[in-house]
Amino acid sequence: MRLAYDPSHYRDNTSLRDTIENVARLGYEYVELSPRQDFIWFNQYPKVDKQMIKDLKRYCSDAGVKISSVLPVQQWSSPIEEVREAAVRNWKRCIEITSELDVDLMNTEFAGDKTRPTESEAAFVKSMEELTPLFEKEGIRLNIQSHPHDFIELNTEAVRMIRALDKDWIKLVYSVPHAFFYDDGIGDVEQHLEEAGDLLDHVLIADTLNHKAAFGLRYIINPPGANVTIHQHLNPGEGEINFDALYKKLREMKFDGIVTNAVFAYPDRPEWSNELTLKSIKEGLNLSLFKNCQEEN
Q1: 2-5 and 105-109 as β-strands: parallel, antiparallel, unpaired?
Q2: Res. 12 pLDDT band, cuts 50 70 90
Q3: Model pTM greater than 0.90?
Q4: At the N or C end, where does the chain have fewer CB atoms within 10 A?
Q5: What's the pLDDT tens digit per position in 43-59?
Q6: N-to-C CA span, the chain
């Protein structure tokens, strides 16, 4: 198992070098390279050259930090063809960068348009057909998560889509703070992990409130019925996720993939947030387990 940190708390006002140093200071051996404007940003062409790749590898080496995965988010499932084509072009560059970083794993979201799910699925499959040869040439694995407002939001549908691709190098990211979207507001984390089974390779840890609660009035949106979604990435214990059940199930499954601290809500207090979240993860999955696994890796 690899315990990683998503440094989104540091992406707006911290250099890439300082970000990597902060990851080490917070107690992590692995960093999940999530979107940042000076590297790979949402739905844009990567702003990366050979020197930046060389520098990043040096920053990681100096800090004793390894890159667990590279996370681009692109509209590769857009039913608008020119948008999809641009996303595929961006993806190709992201794959090249990941390979040059000597990283063998990427993770991402399904994206697309939830109001046009059939067209978005067709766009996604087309993009995967175009990108699969490059993934396989570079030897890079891919983990995908369903996300609120993507063309796939339900956990069951994400699992089905990944199985439909039928590639042993494509697996599932389970994002805990999306749990109330994964089953239409129940948030049954144990059932979700059961559904994922052998496809589960990556778990993102953060808490959230059930947006379906209070007769749908937990969040009041005007005008009613507007096409929006809402969730949080809070410290464990601040929302309504059943973390006892989550950790228990992961222990029962002997999960040995990546576990990422994915709390984003406190850029003004990242150290405090990390202390709470890291404590939750280590206690929930047993501190000795992490020590042994990190020694093995």
Answers
A1: unpaired
A2: confident
A3: yes
A4: C
A5: 999 999 999 999 999 99
A6: 8
